[in-house]
Specification:
The structure holds three protein chains of three kinds. Chain A is of the alpha/beta class. In chain A, 32% of the residues lie in helices and 23% in strands. By secondary structure, chain B is mainly alpha-helical. In chain B, strands 1-2 form a two-stranded antiparallel ribbon. In chain B, 37% of the residues are buried. Helix content of chain B is 62%, strand content 2%. In chain C, helix 4 runs antiparallel to helix 5 and helix 10 runs antiparallel to helix 11. The radius of gyration of chain C is 24 Å and the shape is flat. Chain C has a domain of 172 residues: MetI-like fold. The chains are: A alpha/beta, B mainly alpha, C mainly alpha.
């Protein structure tokens, strides 16, 4: 197999936010890899830092963000077809906007009801980026935008172009947002919970749409979500994030069938599942730690039924399980007692395996 | 990592799983207070208002002069009464302390922190007495307005339907009459003075309160636990008192904090125009008018009431802003 | 949109009619002698009442009054200006008030907008702090205090500007009253614009625009300013009304023959002039309702969410 082409490489990303309550240590050393054409999902509870890490990658951080360290290496082909490698964190906003945002990296946001400009027509919002980045005429951009709207499944595109966002339904708006993201043919598409704000019936449609354009255009996708059902459907690799750190990473089969971190166990157990006769839904006890305060040891220890004494003293390193799978839990240390995942979860995974076959 | 031994790798087993340090179940009002006092502005506002209130009630006691007393001294040579007109601020003991040459005038031993006005009245006493009148007018009228407005809003929201729409039409019309016009019509029916100011404020300021109460009522009426309460036979009154009133406390207090400065402003304005507080009574507004009338001869007479007025505005606005933010905290942007 | 405009105008007209009727009734049922300036016997008063139609049914009286008002005839003053027709006095006063008030509102709006935008673009920096200090000052200190201050310093201590309004030195005479009246408008608009801008700069759609690669002035003019300025229109209505109220004292102090001074004269003198109170009451209410109507319509025109209301509708 040929050497895979790495497109995004986030190393030890460490970010705090200045707030009125004090410094919030939102990202505490995040590592994420993404290869061309693949889909990576980032999973975690709200507040775990999923969106923040992607906003950092896009250079969209709020002004109260403080970078404590790390790098975000992005590789792309520039206008002359040469392969360039930049550290997004070292570039100024203007440069990122002009050379990266929209052009090579685009984003789909969570809530389509608020992410479109209410006073600008759909057509203008789609063509805006193309005119800025591709240097094409208004007319040409307009024609292309029509094509894009048809590609994302909007009928009578011509008419919709003249509409304002409030005249479209939520699902339609999200299609428009996707069309905007695709308008300059980016290499990387970041989808920040693109379906959470939508009706259940529309969710699947939007996910299928994203998968379709990914296949057709061969772009890489980062999927931020807390919905493991979505992850199973779209992702090649999964990063499980907890309290500003990646705690487990692996390909989709490894995460779903051989999870190693107790937090991942919890997430999988908490998934609604029709196959079970137990009608209670499992929830992970407690809530994430307050990142205003320093976290000592493993951030998950306090909620972990399988915590070890050492979890309260030292944060576990990433233990490598296979070439693609690693997890940050002391349970994988040779000195640790042998702990199996809960019986209930084992059964559930067994069922999932069967269903998949 | 070698410094950890086997015994660090034991399961901790069953423990109390730690819950919530983020959104720990703090009592609602403690959270509000904490957020309120965390803001410098709101604390400054509160201090300003408290200091002025204290001075308004105890300030006049510090002076030997009443607010209507005219200070005069018998001239030892001519035997004529000399009135202490238009004196600059003077504090004899402080001058002595600082070793300043004492004034050898007739009033050298008298203390006038803010000086005296054109008639020889102590401005310190008058300023705080005026502040007291202004504050009392504001507090009393706003208190009554809260009661009127809440009743109106609760009734309108509770009954809904035709009652509500008639009552709301009325509010719309009442809201479309400029305050000025209300005052002018009132001036036909009422003698000028404190009563006119109070009635004018009563007529105009309740509308905001009624809107808050009605909105809250409508919101709560839809909630399931209230519906459940009603089906279980909870009386209308208990619904209003137990469920609606506590929820309106926050927004109403905030509204009050913005209405009080409006009331003070209006009073000052009416008194200045000459339909408000009448001589020899005084309020912040009438003191400013007095000061203005003497501005060419005693330019500093106008300064204390203006500063008191501005500080009251500032203080109440700061408190109002702080309360509003404390009641509806915005999540910190990440 | 047509339906919206029609409905708004109709409500405004009906509201104004109701208010006018109420004012008319209240003023006509007032206690006491409507002719305070003249010494008359009871019979003479009764005759005069009859002559003026004061004994008719109130609706008939209102109808007759409104017929005259439509022609611009508000009758004569009962005590002010020796009974000159209100129409002439009012016309002159309106012109004066509009000129000075107009300058004040334009000045305040313009400076306020600039200040608010500059503050928002320099969030938490010097200009932001400066803007908030200025707007606090403007909100906490009444216009007439600024007027007194300006008058004392620039017309009394130094005689750069006229001490009282002087129609022969019109331009110089407008500076002090316009500036002092504009400060409240300015600070309110500055504060509002600043907060609106800041909120929009944090909004999702601005984030989306940034993720498209928009930045700098393009981002601000296309996505931030447009959305921030539309709601500013809505604060203009209450501000104009505050200005009308503020003009009362300002005109009184600075000796401007405007509607504000007219109002003060009508209510604060020895005898209250009922006809002026009525005429001015109608005028002020009409101004108030008219301004609210205009602002609503302008807002509807600017905001596509109101302009084009039907979901998925054409046009």
């Amino acid at each position: 197999m040929e050497e895979k082409d790495k497109i995004l490489d986030i190393r030890d990303l460490d970010v705090s936010f200045r707030t009125s309550a004090g410094m919030i240590h939102a990202l505490r050393g995040v590592n994420i890899d993404l290869y061309r054409g693949e889909t990576v999902a980032i999973v975690g509870e709200s507040g775990s830092g999923k969106s923040v890490s992607m906003k950092a990658a896009m250079g969209l951080m709020a002004s109260n963000a403080v970078f404590n360290g790390g790098e975000v290496i992005f590789r792309y082909k520039d206008d002359n077809g040469e392969i360039k490698e930049v550290d997004i964190l070292k570039q100024d906003k203007k440069w990122i906007r002009r050379n990266i945002n929209g052009k090579h990296m685009a984003m789909v946001f969570q809530d389509p009801m608020t992410s479109l400009d209410p006073t600008m027509t759909i057509g203008k919002q789609i063509t805006e980026g193309m005119i800025a980045h591709l240097g094409i005429s208004k007319k040409e951009a307009w024609e292309r935008a029509k094509g894009l709207l048809e590609e994302v499944g909007i009928v009578d595109a011509e008419k919709r172009m003249k509409n304002y966002p409030h005249q479209l339904s939520g699902g339609m708006r999200q299609r428009v947002v996707i069309a905007i993201a695709l308008s300059c043919d980016p290499d990387l598409l970041i989808c920040d919970e693109p379906t959470t704000a939508l009706d259940v019936t529309i969710q699947a449609v939007i996910i299928d749409l994203i998968r379709k354009v990914q296949k057709e255009r061969g772009i890489s996708v980062i999927y931020i979500t807390h919905d493991l059902g979505v992850v199973a459907k779209v992702a090649d690799y999964v990063n499980v994030m907890y309290a500003g750190k990646i705690v487990e990473v692996g390909n989709v089969n490894e995460i779903f069938y051989e999870p190693a971190h107790p937090y991942t166990w919890g997430l999988l157990s908490a998934m609604p599942d029709l196959g079970t006769d137990d009608d209670r839904l499992y929830t992970i006890p407690g809530s994430p730690p307050n990142l205003l305060h320093d976290v000592k040891g493993d951030a998950f220890a306090a909620r972990n039924p399988f915590a070890l004494a050492i979890d309260e003293m030292e944060h576990p390193p990433m233990f490598k399980i296979t070439e693609t799978h690693s997890a940050a839990t002391w349970l994988l240390d040779p000195r640790a007692p042998k702990v199996e995942m809960p019986e209930e979860l084992k059964k559930r995974i067994e069922r999932m395996r069967k269903e998949a076959e | 990592m070698t410094n950890y031994t086997e015994k660090d790798f034991v399961l901790l087993g069953e423990r109390d799983i730690q819950t919530d340090t983020n959104f720990a179940s703090q009592p609602y009002w403690r959270g509000v207070f904490k957020r309120f006092f965390a803001k410098k502005r709101s604390v400054v506002g509160l201090i300003i208002v408290l200091v002025i209130i204290v001075l308004a009630f105890f300030g006049p006691l510090l002076s030997q002069n009443g607010y209507r007393d005219i200070t005069s001294v018998k001239d030892p040579e001519t035997g004529k009464e000399i009135v202490a007109r238009g004196l600059d601020p003077q504090i004899p003991w402080l001058d002595k302390l600082l070793g300043k040459e004492a004034d050898d005038g007739l009033f050298a031993d008298k203390t006038f922190l803010f000086g005296t006005d054109d008639l020889g009245r102590d401005l310190w006493t008058r300023t705080w007495y005026g502040a007291r009148v202004s504050l009392l007018i504001a507090f009393v009228t706003i208190f009554i307005d809260v009661i009127i407005g809440m009743t109106y809003g609760l009734v309108s929201g509770y009954f809904g339907g035709a009652v509500d729409s008639v009552m709301q039409r009325f509010v719309e019309i009442a809201n479309s009459v400029p305050r000025l016009v209300i005052v002018s019509v009132l001036a036909i029916f009422m003698p000028k003075g404190i009563g006119l100011v109070i009635v004018a404020l009563l007529i105009t300021e309740w509308i905001g309160m009624s809107k808050i109460a009605r909105a809250e009522m409508l919101k709560i009426k839809e909630m399931e636990y209230v519906l459940a309460g009603r089906t279980l036979g909870a009386s209308n009154f208990s619904i209003i008192f137990k469920d609606v009133l506590p929820n309106t406390v926050g927004p109403i207090i905030t509204q009050v904090m913005f209405s009080i400065p409006t009331a003070i402003f209006t009073e000052a304005f009416l008194s200045f125009v000459g339909v408000g507080i009448m001589l020899p009574e005084c309020s912040v507004g009438s003191l400013i008018e007095d000061g203005f009338n003497n501005i060419t001869t005693l330019p500093y007479q106008i300064v204390p009431p203006i500063i008191v007025l501005a500080l009251l505005m500032l203080g109440f606005n700061f408190i109002g802003d702080g309360l509003r933010e404390a009641l509806a905290p915005k999540l910190d942007d990440m | 949109m047509k339906k919206y405009v029609f409905k708004r105008i109709l409500t405004a007209v009906i509201t104004l009619l109701i208010i006018t009727f109420l004012l008319f009734t209240l003023v006509r049922i007032m206690p006491g002698n409507p002719f305070p300036s003249e010494r008359m016997t009871d019979e003479a008063i009764a005759a005069k009442r009859e002559e003026m139609g004061l004994n008719d049914n109130i609706f008939v009286q209102f109808w007759n009054y409104m017929k005259n008002v439509m022609k611009g005839d508000f009758g004569k003053g009962t005590s002010l200006y020796n009974g000159a027709p209100i129409k002439t006095v009012l016309g002159k006063s309106l012109a004066n008030s509009f000129k000075i008030g107009g300058i004040a509102i334009l000045l305040g709006t313009f400076v306020g907008l600039v200040l608010g935008v500059v503050a928002a673009l320099n969030r938490d920096k010097f200009m932001d702090v400066f803007c908030s200090v200025v707007s606090i000052l403007g909100v906490c200190v009444p216009a007439y205090v600024f007027l007194i201050f300006l008058q004392y310093n620039f017309a009394y201590k130094t005689t750069l500007l006229p001490y009282f309004f002087d129609s022969r030195r019109f331009f110089e005479s407008t500076i002090i009253p316009s500036v002092s009246m504009s400060l409240f408008t300015m600070s309110t608009i500055a504060r509002f614009t600043r907060n609106e801008m800041v909120e929009i700069m944090d909004s999702d759609y601005v984030l989306l625009a940034e993720s498209k690669g928009m930045y700098g002035s393009k981002l601000i003019t296309r996505h931030v300013l447009r959305n921030a300025l539309i709601p500013v229109v809505t604060v203009l209505a209450p501000l104009v009304v505050d200005l009308l109220t503020g003009a009362l004292v300002v005109e009184k102090i600075y000796g401007i023959q405007g509607i504000g001074k007219l109002m003060v004269d009508a209510i604060s003198g020895e005898g209250i002039d009922y006809n002026y109170v009525l005429a001015l009451g109608i005028l002020y209410s009409a101004l108030y309702i008219g301004i609210m109507l205009i602002v609503d319509l302008v807002y509807g025109l600017l905001d596509p969410r109101i302009r084009i209301s039907s979901k998925g509708g054409d046009k």
